[in-house]
Specification:
By secondary structure, the chain is an all-alpha fold. Helix content is 66%, strand content 2%. The chain is built from ten helices and two strands, in the order H-H-H-H-H-H-H-E-E-H-H-H. Helix 5 runs antiparallel to helix 6 (110-133) and helix 6 crosses helix 8. The longest helix is centred in the C-terminal third of the chain and has 32 residues, at 156-187. The radius of gyration is 19 Å and the shape is globular.
């Protein structure tokens, strides 16, 4: 398995730095991902998911991953991390390009490599605008802007690099977990029936 490529250097992020720097950054960010913080956006995400379901009624069917899990995870990523909701289509497109693989191509195809550069350019611009705005928003972007590592503030490029992990992790992980749960319920109709007849089982099922 090819984990790195000479075309992409090792970018600074939580999964490429060691303690004590890793510990310090994680401690600075953890409050945004704790159960209490996530609970605060539950109502908004529930309303969004309900609106998506309503949009499927006329057609009578939908793709559980493409039409439901992916949009919900993207909306959550924007709300939690401070990414503009109006940029959701662009964010989705860049992440999909990053994870796309081509038959016969070893490692990352050229467009997947280019997507990393595109994400960094987008996120650097977002960080610059947030830094210039001097807003009182409280999210991971503002946390990175105020973070000091070894006595210095992080630059825009460094923050953008860290944000790529939050973007890709948020957008890509949940749809795959959701797809796995949906597949298991399809493969085990008896368990699916139990969930359908007792909706209180839904949280445990997923």
């Amino acid at each position: 398995m090819q984990l790195c490529t000479k075309d992409i250097g090792v970018l600074p992020s939580l999964n490429t730095v060691d303690p004590p720097i890793h510990t310090e950054i994680r401690g600075h960010l953890r409050r945004y991902f704790m159960p209490r913080a996530v609970a605060r956006i539950e109502s908004e995400l529930r309303s969004y998911a309900s609106a998506l379901f309503e949009s499927f009624l006329d057609e009578g069917q939908f793709d559980a991953v493409r039409d439901l899990a992916a949009p919900v995870s993207l909306r959550a990523a924007c709300i939690v991390n401070g990414f503009p909701v109006e940029d959701e289509p662009l964010l989705q497109e860049m992440v999909q390009r990053y994870f796309h693989r081509e038959r016969g191509v070893i490692g990352m195809p050229p467009d997947a490599i280019q997507s990393v550069e595109d994400m960094l350019v987008y996120l650097q611009d977002l960080v610059r605008r947030r830094r210039a705005a001097s807003s009182d928003r409280d999210d991971p972007i503002s946390a990175y802007l105020s973070l000091e590592i070894e006595g210095r503030r992080l630059g825009d490029e460094e923050i953008a690099s860290h944000l790529t992990l939050l973007l890709m992790g948020a957008v890509e992980t949940f749809p795959k977990v959701f797809a796995s749960a949906a597949l298991r319920l399809f493969q085990n109709p008896d368990q699916r029936t139990r969930v359908v007849h007792d909706l209180g089982r839904v949280p445990d099922a997923f």
